[in-house]
Write a structure and sequence with these properties.
With about 350 residues, the protein is an alpha/beta fold. The protein contains twelve helices and eleven strands. It has two domains: about 80 residues, no CATH class; about 240 residues, NAD(P)-binding Rossmann-like Domain (Rossmann fold, 3-Layer(aba) Sandwich). InterPro entries: ThiF/MoeB/HesA (IPR045886), ThiF_NAD_FAD-bd (IPR000594), Ubiquitin-activating_enz (IPR035985).
Length: about 350
C-alpha cells in the first residue's frame, strides 16, 4: 500500500491550491501563553496586557500540514511546541523526562484489532514517534463493535485506517505500514530491521507467528507485550527478553512444544492452544463459555470495545514503564471491570 502521509510545509504558499484551510494556530498561541504562565488565567484582568503583548511579539513560525486524504491544510505550531501543548495536561502524571523517553521508544504492533486500541492510546498519550504496524485484513462490519473505525471505513485496510488516525492526531509521527501482515518472510525484518524495535506488541491470531516472534525477540533482546481481551478486561503478558534472553516463550505454558506443532491447526485445535497460552484460570466465565461455542453457535472469538480500550491502556502503561526502565517483571497481569465494579470505595 502506498499510503501518502501528511506533508509539512513552512509557508502557506507551498500548500496545494484548493485545499480546505483550518486555523489551529491562533488558538494554540493563546493556549501556549497560559501553559507557560500557569499563574495566569483567561478570566484574570491582569492577564490581558501580557497576552496581547505575547500575541503581537511571539515570533513563532507555524507550519502548514497537508492531509491528502482530507484535502485539508492545518496551520498549527511547529513540532516541538505542538508536542509540548498536546501533552501539557499529561504533567505530572507523566513527567517531562518520562514523556521524552516514552516518545523516543520504537514500537511495532502486529495485529490491529486490539492493536488499534493500543495504537490509539499510545498516540493519545504522546507516545512513540516511530511506529511499525502490521495487519493483513480490511475493516469489516463485525469489527465495528471494538475497533476505532466507522461504517465509512469498511473495506479499507486496517493499517491505513490506523495510520490516518494517528497522523490526524500526531502529524509528525513516523509510521511504517505492513498491510500484508506478518509472515515467515518478513517478521524478522519487521522486528529487527531498521528502525529496530525497542518493544514488540503481539496482537496476532497466527500462533505459529506468535511463537516465531518470541524466537526473534529473544535473539535480539526485545521485550514482548501481549494484551488479550478478557470479557470487559485484559490479560497482559509481559516477556522481558531484554532482561533475560532465555526466558521461555509464553512463560513456559506450552512446555516442550515446537513451532512446527503450531502449523496447520484446525479451528478447535487453535482454540485449545490459544487457551493454553492465555491461561484458562485467567479467563472470565462468559469468555470460557464463548470459546467453547466457536464453530458451533459463534463464528469467532467474542470481544468488546470495553475490553479493547482497557487493553490499550494496559499496554501503553507497560510501554511507559519499560521505556523509563521502571520495574515490570515478566509474567501475566490481569485487570477486569467485572471485579472492580463490585468494589465499593
Amino acid at each position: 500500500m502506498a499510503l501518502e502521509k501528511p506533508k509539512v510545509f513552512n509557508s502557506q504558499e507551498e500548500t496545494p491550491a484548493g485545499a480546505k484551510e483550518i486555523d489551529a494556530f491562533s488558538g494554540a498561541l493563546e493556549e501556549l501563553f497560559f501553559v507557560e504562565r500557569p499563574n495566569l488565567k483567561k478570566s484574570m484582568p491582569e492577564a490581558k496586557a501580557p497576552l496581547e503583548d505575547f500575541l503581537k511579539n511571539h515570533g513563532i513560525k507555524g507550519v502548514w500540514i497537508y492531509y491528502p486524504w482530507k484535502n485539508a491544510v492545518v496551520h498549527t505550531l511547529p513540532e516541538e511546541l505542538y508536542f509540548k501543548l498536546r501533552t501539557a495536561r499529561n504533567r505530572n502524571i507523566i513527567t517531562e523526562d518520562e514523556q521524552r523517553n516514552y516518545r523516543n521508544v520504537k514500537i511495532g504492533t502486529a495485529g490491529l484489532s486490539v492493536g488499534s486500541a493500543i495504537a490509539e492510546v499510545l498516540s493519545g498519550t504522546g507516545g512513540p514517534k516511530i511506529l511499525k504496524i502490521a495487519d493483513p485484513d480490511v475493516v469489516e462490519l463485525t469489527n465495528l463493535n471494538r475497533i476505532k473505525a466507522t461504517l465509512l471505513d469498511v473495506g479499507s485496510e486496517k493499517t491505513e485506517i490506523t495510520a490516518k488516525q494517528i497522523w490526524e492526531l500526531d502529524p509528525f509521527a513516523e509510521i511504517y505500514c505492513l498491510d500484508g501482515g506478518i509472515n515467515k518472510n518478513n517478521i524478522e525484518e519487521f522486528i529487527s530491521g531498521e528502525p529496530k524495535l525497542d518493544i514488540f506488541i503481539d496482537e496476532m491470531d497466527d500462533l505459529e507467528m506468535k511463537f516465531l516472534s518470541r524466537i526473534i525477540c529473544a535473539k535480539n533482546g526485545i521485550p514482548i507485550l501481549m494484551a488479550t481481551d478478557n470479557g470487559e478486561g485484559v490479560i497482559l503478558d509481559v516477556e522481558r527478553y531484554d532482561l533475560d534472553r532465555n526466558y521461555p516463550p509464553f512463560h513456559g505454558l506450552l512446555g516442550n512444544l515446537k513451532i512446527e506443532d503450531l502449523a496447520g491447526l484446525s479451528r478447535r485445535q487453535w482454540v485449545e492452544m490459544a487457551i493454553k497460552i492465555i491461561g484458562a484460570d485467567y479467563l472470565v466465565e462468559r469468555l470460557k463459555i464463548s470459546l467453547a461455542e466457536i464453530g458451533k453457535t459463534l463464528s469467532g472469538v467474542s470481544q468488546l470495545a470495553t475490553g479493547a480500550k482497557i487493553s490499550g491502556a494496559a499496554v501503553a502503561r507497560a510501554v511507559r514503564l519499560i521505556a523509563n526502565k521502571e520495574n515490570l517483571a515478566s509474567g501475566k497481569y490481569k485487570l477486569n471491570l467485572e471485579e472492580l465494579c463490585r468494589i465499593a470505595i
